[in-house]
Amino acid sequence: MSDSVSIADGAALIVIDVQQGFDDPFWGPRDNPAADANIERLIAAWTEAGRPIVVVHHDSRGELSPLHPDNPGNALKSYVAAAPAALSISKTVNSAFYGEPDLDAWLRASGIDQVVIAGIQTNMCCETTARMAGNLGYDVLFVPDAMHTFDLEAPDGGTVAAAELSRITAINLAGGEFARIATTDQLTR
């Protein structure tokens, strides 16, 4: 990973699903305890630079999910709720590009061709959004230290640790056409 990352003046920070429900034990063990602090640093840097922030909110269809609209966990964490969002998106699936309003249409109308992705979960909604952004031709900066995920049970019955899932996600995205990997420090200098 290079020490420098070029950030476009109008680069959009896309903050994905930073909701209170992800603090619920429902999800199991997680990685990266510094994720919230790093997301907050990115929001502060984007606010100070006058760059656009997109806040994405997941409305789960599963009634037992902490992210279901009827549950208190659906609410954004306070530091994200206070962010000066240029656009707020509600979604029910993995990708922010399938939410309302239309993220791709807004980015194109705003003349934005670079996006920075942070949020929850690294290997789920963050990765899916990054892959779609890459496929749509955006310059994608993926920031794993400003994300976290949870341990998952593998099809063979074993468990894959959250940190390993995050590592593999970064490898997959960086090894293809989807994204460049960046750190919070690189983006907040």
Please provide a written account of the structure.
- This protein has a single domain (12-187), classed as Isochorismatase-like (Rossmann fold).
- The protein is 30% helix and 21% strand.
- It has helices at 35-49, 78-81, 103-109, 122-135, 162-174, 184-187; strands at 12-16, 53-58, 87-91, 114-120, 139-148, 152-153, 159-160, 180-181.
- Helix 4 (122-135) packs parallel to helix 5.
- The two termini are 16 Å apart.
- With 189 residues, it is an alpha/beta fold.
Distance between the termini: 16 Å
As a percent range, the share of helical residues equals 25-40%
CATH architecture call:
3-Layer(aba) Sandwich
Return Rg in Å.
Answer: 15 Å
- For the record, the count of structural domains works out to 1
Assigned CATH superfamily = Isochorismatase-like
Q: Could you report the average pLDDT, rounded to the nearest whole number?
A: 96
The shape, in one word, is globular
Helix segment tally: 6
CATH class category: Alpha Beta
- Biggest sheet: strands, sense, closure? 6 strands, parallel
Q: In terms of structural class, how would the helical and strand content be classed?
A: alpha/beta
| Spatial order of strands in the largest sheet | 3-2-1-4-5-8
* Overall number of strands: 8
In percent, how much strand structure appears in the residues?
15-25%
User: Which blocks of ≥5 consecutive residues have pLDDT under 50?
Assistant: none
